[in-house]
C-alpha cells in the first residue's frame, strides 16, 4: 500500500456522488469537444489547404469579375505550373428552392488538372470535355439531387435568371478527407455563350494556379498582383490557405464567441469538481485530523485531497473522451458530413481536441482541489478532531 | 407544509456549495440568454429596416439584393403603377448594391462592407436617414457617407478618408449617417450613377424599393408585376424581406447557442443533483425529525424540491443580470445571406428574461427531483439514530 | 516517503527519551486560555505535572475540566498559552507545527474513544499507516504490521475492513496502529468510552500488558472507574488544576 491507495479508495466512499460527478464532468467534456470540433472542422479547410496552390480574385470585391484573358497572363508567369479559372453560379434545386449548393462554371480543360484532390474516371472526364452542357457533380450532391451519370438535371441560380439544363457526365469523389463533395461543376463556355450570361461575358471570378515550388508562393503571388496593378481590375493573389483563412476572418467574432463559451464550459466543469471535492473534504475533516495527529504533515493532507481530485477529474475526462469518440465521431460526425457537407465536409474530433479535453479535465481537477486542499491542511488539528462527521 | 425559512436557512448555512451550484446555473443561463439576445438583436436590426407599406423588387430567383440585377428602365415602369405613391419621383427608387473588400482597422484581416449606390430620391424615400456628422454627399460626385455602426472599423472608411471601389476610382467619405438603428447603419452610401460608372456596368439596378399608397395594395402590386414574365421580377413586402434576410443568421445564432445551453443545462442539473443529494444525506436526522413531528412525505418532497428550485432561480437571476450587461456590447459578424458584415446589439426583451428564468427553474426542478424523492423516503426512525 | 530521518525506534544517543530526571513528561506552569470572540476562557491554570517513565497514568475529572486539553498538550497536538512542555527528552514549547507532526509520529501512539480507523483501509493497512511516514521498505513494514497485530491478537483479521469488526476488535486494531512505530508514550483519550464491558476489559488488559511487559508509558484520560483502577497512578483534574 502507499499513500495513493487512500486517495484512490476515497473516491468510492460515496459511489453515487462520484458517479454523478464523473458524469457531469464527462458531459462538459463532450460539449467542449463538440465546440472545438466545430471550430477545427471550420478551420480544417484552411489547415488542409494546399501549399502549392494560389488563388487570384478581384482585389476590390468578391462579386467583381476579372477579364478572362488574365488567366493567360498568369499561365505565362514563371513558376506557375498550371492555372484554371471559375465563375460562381450560386445554385439551387428548382424542386427545393430553399436549398443552396455551390455551382461553378469552370475551364473544362484544366479544372481537374489543377484541382487534383478529386477522383474522376478518365472516361467521364473525356465525355464531359466533349459535351458543352455537361456537368460533373460531387458524390454527396448527386445523392441529394438523386441523379446519376447520364441523367438530365435542371438547376437555377440566384444570379442568372431562368432554368439551366445540364447532362450529368461524371461524379467525382474526394481523395482527401476535407475535400468538397457537394459542388456542381459545368463548363464556363456554356455560360458565356448563353445570352443570359451577359453580366459575366468574357469574365471570370478567380484564377487558381498550381505553382512548382511552394516556398515561392508569396513571391509569385506578389508578382501576379504587380502584373495587374495598373489595370482597371486589380487582383489579390494569396495562397489557398490565406484565401481560406480570409473567409474565416469574417467570422472572427463568432469564433471568439466560441472561445468564450469554451471557457464557460471549463468553468462549469471546474465548479462541479470543486463542489464535490469540497463536500468530500468537509466530511473527512475529522479523519484528516486523526491522520495529522498520528504524524501526517499538512502537505500530506494536500496530497490526499489533490490526488483524489485529480483522479476524479481524470476519470471524468476518460468517460468524456469515450462519449466524444462514440457520439461525435460515431454518430454526429457522419450526420453532419452528410447533411451539412458544404460547410463541413469533415467533422470528426481531431486527436488534438481529445488530448486537450483530457488535459482540461485533469487540470480542472487539480485546480478544483487546490483551495479545499489548502483549507484542510490549514485547519488546527484539535479543531479537526473535535468535529464529528 | 414545511416552512420555507427552513430551506432558506439550510441554503445559507452551506454557503460554499450553494454559491458554487448557483454559479453553475448562472453560467448556463448566461450562455442561453446571450444566444437569445444576439438572435433578437439580429432580428431587431433587420426588422427596423423594413416598412409595411414598402415593397422591394428583385430579379426573379434572387433571394437578396447582392446577386440580383435588372434593367434600370424597369424602375420607371414600376413607378407608373397605380398602387405606387405618386409625386416628386420618389415613389420608387432603384439602387445598386455591392460588397467591397476592405481591411479591418484592428489588423485582424479583411472583411466585406456593403456599398449602396443611391439616387438623390433615396434620401427623401428614407426620412429616417440623418446626417450625424459631416455633410450629405453631393449628387453626381464620388462623395460617400458611412453608417454610424461601422465608423472606424475599416481602413479608409471614415470621414475625411477615402477608399477604392476599383483601381483609380476612389470614394471620398464626407459624413456619417444614422438610420434609426436599422441595418443601413452598417452600410456606405454613394451616388448610384457614379458607382455604375466606376464598375463599368451598364444601366442596371440591384433592387427597386417601392412605396405603396396603402400596405394592403401589396398583393395587387405583386400580382401585376410578377404576372408579366418579360419583367422577370419578384416582389416582397420590405418587412418580410428583412425577416428572411436575418432568418439564417438569427436562426444559426439562436440554434447553436440554445443547443449548447441545453446540453450544458444537463451538466447543471447533474450539479444540482449532487448538491441536493449531499444536503439530504447531511440532514437525514433533521428530515427524520420532521417526519416524526408529523410532516408528510409530500411535504418533505415539496420542501426539498422548492429548495432546489430556489437555488437554481438564484443562479438564474445572476445569470440573467450578467447577460443584461451584454446589452452594452455590440457584436459584428458576417450575415450569410447578404455576405456583408452586420453589427448587432445584444437586445434584451422581457420575453428573454422570462425564458432565462424559466430555464433555470426547469434545471432546478429536474435536478432536484431525485434528491427530493430520496428525502421524502427518509423514515421517522432516523430522528432517533445516533 | 522522506527517508532522511530513519525512525528505527532507537535513540540516537543525544535524546535518551527521558527528561533527565526519570520523568518522561515534565510540565511547568502550564496555562491554557481559549477565546470565544474576545472573551477569554481559562481552561488550565498554572499546572505542573511529572510523569515517570514506565508509568500507567489515569486522569479523571468532570466534563469541561480540561482533561482533553491537557492530553493534547502532552501529545504535542496543542500548545499552552504559558509554561514549558518537555516530553520524552524534547522541548515541545517552541517546535513548529511541522516539527511537532514529525515528533508525534516517532514518539506518540494515539488511542481514541471512537477508534478512528480509516474505513476504506483494511486492518493491516490501517496499522501500516504510521509506517508510511518512515523510510522503511515495504517488506519491513509488513513485518512490523504482523508483529503489532499479533500483540493485539488479531492477526487473522488482517484483511478485514473496520465495518466487518466489532467495536472491541476495532479498538484493538487501533492499539496495534498506536504501537507499530514503537512509540515512547501511548496517549489514550477515553479508550473504553464506546465499548461494552467485556470488550472494555479486553482492551484494558491489553494496555496493562503493554505497560508491564513492554514498558510503555501510558497516559489515559477516562470516565470509567474500572479503567482508572488498572492504572498505577490516578489523578484528578478539577477546574484547571490537578488535585
Please characterize this protein's 3D structure.
The complex is a heterotrimer of chains A (389), B (386) and C (243). By secondary structure, chain A is α+β, with helices and mostly antiparallel strands. Helix content of chain A is 54%, strand content 19%. Chain A has 14 helices and 13 strands. In chain A, the strands form two sheets. A six-stranded mixed β-barrel of chain A has the order 4-5-10-7-9-8. A two-stranded antiparallel sheet of chain A has the order 2-11. In chain A, a hairpin with a 2-residue loop joins strand 4 (91-93) and strand 5 (96-106). The longest helix of chain A is centred in the last third of the chain and has 42 residues, at 298-339. Chain A is elongated, with a radius of gyration of 30 Å. Chain B folds into two domains: 4-47 and 245-385, no CATH class; 54-213, no CATH class. In chain B, 48% of the residues lie in helices and 22% in strands. Chain B is built from ten helices and 14 strands. Chain C is an alpha/beta fold. Chain C has helices spanning 67-74, 97-107, 123-128, 138-151, 167-179, 197-212, 225-230; strands spanning 23-36, 39-52, 56-60, 82-87, 90-91, 108-111, 185-189, 217-221, 233-238, 241-242. Chain C starts with 22 loop residues before the first strand and ends with a strand. Classes of the chains: A alpha+beta (389), B alpha+beta (386), C alpha/beta (243). Chains in contact: A-B, A-C. Chains A and B meet through helix 2, helix 9 and helix 10 of A and helix 2, strand 3, strand 4, strand 7 and helix 7 of B.
What topology does this entry show?
The complex is a heterotrimer of chains A (389), B (386) and C (243).
Chain A: H1 3-10, H2 15-47, E1 53-58, E2 66-67, H3 70-75, E3 80-88, E4 91-93, E5 96-106, H4 111-114, E6 118-119, H5 122-130, E7 134-138, H6 139-145, E8 152-157, E9 163-174, E10 183-187, H7 188-193, E11 203-204, E12 206-211, H8 217-227, E13 235-239, H9 240-250, H10 252-283, H11 285-293, H12 298-339, H13 351-378, H14 381-386
Parallel strand pairs in A: 5-10, 7-9
Antiparallel strand pairs in A: 1-12, 1-13, 2-11, 3-5, 3-12, 4-5, 4-8, 6-9, 7-10, 8-9
Helix pairs in contact in A: 1-12, 2-9, 2-10, 2-12, 2-13, 10-12, 10-13, 12-13
Chain B: H1 4-13, H2 15-48, E1 54-59, E2 70-71, H3 73-79, E3 92-103, E4 110-118, H4 121-125, E5 130-134, E6 143-147, E7 162-166, E8 169-178, E9 187-191, H5 192-199, E10 204-205, E11 207-211, H6 218-227, E12 233-237, H7 238-282, H8 284-293, H9 297-325, E13 330-335, E14 340-345, H10 350-376
Parallel strand pairs in B: 4-9, 6-8
Antiparallel strand pairs in B: 1-11, 1-12, 2-10, 3-4, 3-11, 5-8, 6-9, 7-8, 13-14
Chain C: E1 23-36, E2 39-52, E3 56-60, H1 67-74, E4 82-87, E5 90-91, H2 97-107, E6 108-111, H3 123-128, H4 138-151, H5 167-179, E7 185-189, H6 197-212, E8 217-221, H7 225-230, E9 233-238, E10 241-242
Parallel strand pairs in C: 3-8, 3-9, 6-7, 7-8
Antiparallel strand pairs in C: 1-2, 1-4, 4-5, 9-10
Helix pairs in contact in C: 4-5, 5-6
Amino acid at each position: 500500500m502507499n499513500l495513493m491507495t487512500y486517495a484512490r479508495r476515497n473516491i468510492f466512499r460515496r459511489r453515487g456522488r462520484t458517479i454523478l460527478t464523473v458524469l457531469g464532468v464527462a458531459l462538459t467534456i463532450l460539449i467542449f469537444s463538440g465546440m472545438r470540433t466545430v471550430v477545427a472542422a471550420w478551420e480544417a479547410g484552411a489547415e488542409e489547404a494546399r501549399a502549392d496552390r494560389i488563388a487570384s480574385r478581384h482585389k476590390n470585391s468578391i462579386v467583381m469579375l476579372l477579364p478572362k484573358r488574365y488567366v493567360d497572363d498568369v499561365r505565362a508567369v514563371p513558376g506557375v505550373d498550371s492555372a484554371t479559372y471559375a465563375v460562381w453560379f450560386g445554385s439551387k434545386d428548382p424542386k427545393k428552392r430553399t436549398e443552396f449548393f455551390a455551382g461553378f462554371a469552370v475551364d473544362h480543360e484544366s479544372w481537374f488538372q489543377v484541382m487534383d484532390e478529386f477522383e474522376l474516371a478518365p472516361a467521364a472526364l473525356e465525355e464531359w470535355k466533349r459535351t458543352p452542357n455537361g456537368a460533373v457533380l460531387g458524390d454527396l450532391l448527386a445523392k441529394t439531387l438523386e441523379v446519376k451519370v447520364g441523367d438530365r438535371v435542371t438547376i437555377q441560380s440566384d444570379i442568372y435568371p431562368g432554368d439551366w439544363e445540364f447532362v450529368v457526365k461524371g461524379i467525382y469523389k474526394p481523395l482527401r478527407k476535407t475535400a468538397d463533395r457537394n459542388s456542381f461543376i459545368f463548363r464556363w463556355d456554356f455560360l458565356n455563350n448563353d445570352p443570359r450570361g451577359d453580366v459575366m461575358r468574357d469574365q471570370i471570378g478567380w484564377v487558381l494556379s498550381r505553382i512548382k515550388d511552394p516556398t515561392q508562393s508569396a513571391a509569385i503571388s506578389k508578382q501576379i498582383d504587380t502584373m495587374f496593378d495598373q489595370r482597371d481590375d486589380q487582383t489579390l493573389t494569396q495562397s489557398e490557405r490565406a484565401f481560406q483563412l480570409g473567409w474565416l476572418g469574417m467570422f472572427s467574432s463568432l469564433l471568439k464567441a466560441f472561445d468564450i463559451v469554451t471557457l464557460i464550459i471549463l468553468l462549469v466543469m471546474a465548479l462541479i469538481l470543486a463542489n464535490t471535492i469540497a463536500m468530500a473534504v468537509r466530511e473527512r475533516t475529522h479523519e484528516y485530523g486523526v491522520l495529522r495527529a498520528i504524524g501526517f504533515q499538512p502537505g500530506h493532507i494536500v496530497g490526499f485531497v489533490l490526488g483524489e481530485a485529480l483522479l476524479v477529474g481524470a476519470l471524468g475526462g476518460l468517460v468524456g473522451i469515450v462519449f466524444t469518440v462514440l457520439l461525435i465521431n460515431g454518430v454526429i460526425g457522419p450526420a453532419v458530413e452528410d447533411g451539412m457537407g458544404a460547410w463541413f465536409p469533415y467533422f470528426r474530433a481531431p486527436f488534438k481536441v481529445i488530448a486537450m479535453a483530457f488535459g482540461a479535465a485533469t487540470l480542472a481537477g487539480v485546480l478544483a482541489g487546490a483551495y479545499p486542499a489548502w483549507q484542510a491542511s490549514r485547519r488546527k488539528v484539535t479543531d479537526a478532531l473535535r468535529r464529528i462527521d | 407544509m414545511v416552512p420555507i425559512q427552513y430551506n432558506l436557512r439550510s441554503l445559507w448555512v452551506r454557503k460554499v456549495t450553494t454559491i458554487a451550484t448557483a454559479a453553475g446555473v448562472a453560467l448556463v443561463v448566461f450562455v442561453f440568454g446571450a444566444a437569445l439576445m444576439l438572435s433578437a438583436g439580429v432580428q431587431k436590426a433587420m426588422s427596423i429596416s423594413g416598412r409595411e407599406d414598402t415593397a422591394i423588387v428583385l430579379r426573379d430567383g434572387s433571394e437578396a439584393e447582392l446577386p440580383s440585377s435588372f434593367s434600370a428602365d424597369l424602375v420607371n415602369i414600376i413607378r407608373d403603377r397605380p398602387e405606387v405613391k405618386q409625386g416628386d419621383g420618389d415613389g420608387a427608387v432603384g439602387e445598386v448594391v455591392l460588397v467591397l473588400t476592405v481591411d479591418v482597422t484592428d489588423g485582424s484581416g479583411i472583411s466585406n462592407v456593403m456599398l449602396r449606390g443611391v439616387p438623390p430620391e433615396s434620401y427623401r424615400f428614407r426620412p429616417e436617414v440623418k446626417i450625424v456628422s459631416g455633410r450629405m454627399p453631393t449628387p453626381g460626385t464620388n462623395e460617400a457617407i458611412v453608417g454610424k455602426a461601422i465608423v472606424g472599423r475599416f481602413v479608409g472608411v471614415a470621414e475625411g478618408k477615402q477608399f477604392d471601389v476599383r483601381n483609380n476610382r476612389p470614394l471620398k467619405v464626407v459624413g456619417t449617417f444614422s438610420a434609426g438603428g436599422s441595418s443601413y447603419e452598417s452600410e456606405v452610401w454613394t451616388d448610384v450613377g457614379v458607382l455604375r460608372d466606376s464598375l463599368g456596368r451598364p444601366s442596371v439596378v440591384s433592387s427597386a424599393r417601392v412605396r405603396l399608397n396603402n400596405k394592403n395594395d401589396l398583393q395587387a402590386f405583386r400580382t401585376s408585376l410578377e404576372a408579366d414574365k418579360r419583367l422577370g421580377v419578384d416582389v416582397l413586402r420590405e418587412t418580410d424581406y428583412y425577416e428572411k434576410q436575418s432568418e439564417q443568421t438569427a436562426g444559426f445564432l439562436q440554434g447553436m447557442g440554445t443547443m449548447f445551453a441545453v446540453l450544458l443545462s444537463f451538466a447543471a442539473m447533474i450539479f444540482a443533483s449532487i448538491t441536493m443529494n449531499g444536503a439530504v444525506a447531511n440532514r437525514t436526522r433533521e428530515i427524520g425529525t420532521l417526519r416524526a413531528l408529523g410532516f408528510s412525505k409530500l411535504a418533505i418532497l415539496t420542501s426539498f424540491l422548492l429548495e432546489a428550485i430556489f437555488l437554481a432561480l438564484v443562479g438564474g437571476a445572476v445569470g440573467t443580470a450578467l447577460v443584461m450587461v451584454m446589452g452594452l456590447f455590440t457584436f459584428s459578424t458576417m450575415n450569410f445571406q447578404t455576405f456583408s458584415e452586420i453589427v448587432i446589439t445584444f437586445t434584451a426583451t422581457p420575453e428573454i428574461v422570462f425564458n432565462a428564468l424559466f430555464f433555470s427553474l426547469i434545471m432546478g426542478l429536474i435536478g432536484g427531483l431525485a434528491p427530493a424523492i430520496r428525502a421524502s423516503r427518509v423514515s421517522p426512525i432516523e430522528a432517533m439514530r445516533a | 516517503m522522506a527517508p532522511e530521518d530513519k525512525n528505527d525506534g532507537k535513540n540516537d544517543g543525544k535524546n535518551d527519551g527521558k527528561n533527565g530526571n526519570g520523568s518522561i513528561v515534565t510540565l511547568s506552569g502550564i496555562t491554557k486560555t481559549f477565546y470565544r470572540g474576545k472573551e477569554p476562557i481559562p481552561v488550565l491554570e498554572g499546572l505542573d505535572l511529572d510523569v515517570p517513565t514506565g508509568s500507567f497514568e489515569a486522569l479523571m475529572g468532570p466534563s469541561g475540566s480540561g482533561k482533553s486539553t491537557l492530553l493534547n498538550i502532552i501529545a504535542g497536538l496543542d500548545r499552552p498559552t504559558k509554561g514549558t512542555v518537555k516530553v520524552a527528552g524534547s522541548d515541545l514549547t517552541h517546535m513548529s507545527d511541522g516539527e511537532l507532526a514529525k515528533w508525534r509520529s516517532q514518539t506518540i501512539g494515539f488511542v481514541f474513544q471512537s477508534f478512528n480507523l480509516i474505513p476504506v483501509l483494511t486492518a493491516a493497512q490501517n496499522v501500516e499507516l504510521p509506517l508510511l511516514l518512515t523510510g522503511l521498505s515495504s517488506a519491513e513494514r509488513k513485518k512490523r504490521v504482523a508483529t503489532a497485530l499479533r500483540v493485539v491478537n488479531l492477526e487473522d483479521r488482517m484483511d478485514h475492513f473496520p465495518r466487518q469488526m466489532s467495536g472491541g476488535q476495532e479498538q484493538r486494531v487501533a492499539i496495534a496502529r498506536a504501537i507499530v512505530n514503537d512509540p515512547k508514550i501511548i496517549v489514550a483519550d477515553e479508550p473504553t468510552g464506546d465499548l461494552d464491558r467485556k470488550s472494555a476489559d479486553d482492551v484494558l488488559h491489553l494496555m496493562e500488558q503493554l505497560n508491564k511487559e513492554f514498558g510503555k508509558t501510558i497516559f489515559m484520560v477516562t470516565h470509567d472507574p474500572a479503567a482508572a483502577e488498572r492504572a498505577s497512578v490516578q489523578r484528578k483534574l478539577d477546574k484547571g488544576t490537578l488535585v
